[in-house]
Design a protein that fits this description.
homotrimer, 214 residues, 70% helix, 7 helices, mainly alpha
């Protein structure tokens, strides 16, 4: 395994995503191995969905580091849980960096597959968000994705910036850096200033035709 | 984009499925973009599952109209929500037409892939129903599919009619029309006359061996 | 269809998995066809996920016996429900045998695809467990997998034994027998003696930064 900047960021993101799964599993009568699986699914669920849609080999089959990193996340939780879970802001930063990186990885892989820009942006968003959705579904909650500060929309915005940079022929490395930073900054700013999209309210009158709603 | 009868029906079905997702999301503390995603997943979830199982490129990657139609559905909801949600019967008709069309599309695509008739019928049913199941799972409800008037069974019946028409060498267009109409009519008749399958009751005695039930 | 020992075991496992789905569906206002679908998904969900990840044709498309066996399971439930559900121990045995067999099938198929041993073990575990997870998610429960006696871990242990046997060049048939027996025995012993992994407890202090937990 070559150690470079991308690897460090990739593993930080995996670690943060795994911790977010393990953390949400704690206190729900889930055993250690169950927590490991939920952490793993949170970390690799998005990329796996992307790879299935792209019809390529799921990325984690070719490199054991994602399974190992999740193991380290579980071990860290067991040893330093109270301290670790108190690192809210640090974890949030990891999580945001992971989101930015995962989004860009999803876009790059989709571009290589020759897909149009809007499919690439969808794939980037899928890569960044599906793991957290599966985590919430497994733990029997309505996914946070749908109820919270800007999250999926940050991925979309990062994707749009990515293709604007490409349009103006910026170098690939710079494009990736700017796009990932966009995701991360939107996420941080939205959380800090409690910016969120309007909630979709329910209908004001009940017309009694609920039986039609499938 | 060529405008013809199939396209109109296809987009009506997509619109109705998207509205059903957005409608169920309303009043659940879900923001606009979350509602868009749930509408999209409801509309494209079935066809995507089918395409993954058939190992072909997911249909929505090759045509942006499904993403756009879902966007129109969200916009329509935001602008005319009370009116739109009151259109129960019209929406139900769209939804049923969509179900019929999606089922037939699923069968046709599976036939092209050289699959036996019963796999084709399963694929038609998957195409018609999985989107609604994913919608319900994401919104943390037991899928309506399992609890309501004839729904998946209408797809199966339409599939059986499809292969009976083929057996008697009816022209392809007529076969599709008759099969889709079967799905739609069964759905409408079942709703109008409250026809449903018997409920599977629980066991009458608790034998205390629940720990075995996985 | 050739009747041999593997077929008998395969169908017993399918039957037991289908019954476990139908059984959990009973008493939840689910109709007969809904119960059939839940039974089917429980029985074929794991193998289907494995085949999607391996990019091969889902196994049930090539042989109707899985759909038929689930139909028999539904019929048996409707006719003999009280008796059948009281067969706790027998069903549990079927279920454990099915788990062992499904795990080994998953490992073998992954080995044929040329995957490294740890991916094969993951695939065996996926084959054995995903059906039950999907069943629980559809019925809106936190998957039993995460909350109960040793289950997924038995698959992992069976996988490790499988590769130890291969390392010592045991014949393929013996390797499979020993590995499957390992899964089955661990499952039975864990249930009988209530052996389970420690639960992951929640954090002892609420630090108020829950908003970061995605």
């Amino acid at each position: 395994m070559e150690i470079n900047f991308t690897t460090v960021i990739d593993l930080s993101g995996t670690f943060a995503f795994a911790i977010s799964g393990i953390r949400l599993a704690s206190g729900k009568q889930i055993d250690w191995f169950g927590a490991y699986i939920i952490g793993l699914v949170t970390a690799i669920g998005g990329g796996t969905t992307r790879d299935l849609l792209l019809d390529v080999t799921p990325f984690w089959m070719e490199d054991g580091k994602y399974f190992l990193t999740t193991g380290v996340a579980l071990l860290a939780t067991l040893l330093f849980k109270d301290k670790l879970f108190r690192l809210g802001n640090t974890l949030f930063l990891f999580d945001s960096i992971g989101l930015g990186l995962f989004t860009i990885v999803g876009i790059s892989k989709s571009l290589e597959a020759g897909l149009p820009f809007w499919v690439c942006i969808a794939m980037g968003t899928i890569t960044g968000t599906v793991g957290g959705v599966v985590r919430d579904v497994l733990l029997n909650e309505v996914p946070l994705l749908f109820r919270k500060d800007i999250y999926a929309l940050a991925c979309v915005a990062g994707g749009v910036v990515y293709f604007m940079c490409r349009h103006f022929s910026l170098p690939a490395g710079l494009t990736e850096l700017v796009a990932a930073s966009t995701v991360i900054l939107i996420r941080i700013i939205a959380l800090k200033f409690h910016i969120h999209l309007p909630i979709l309210s329910s209908i004001t009158t009940d017309t009694g035709d609920n039986e039609n709603k499938s």
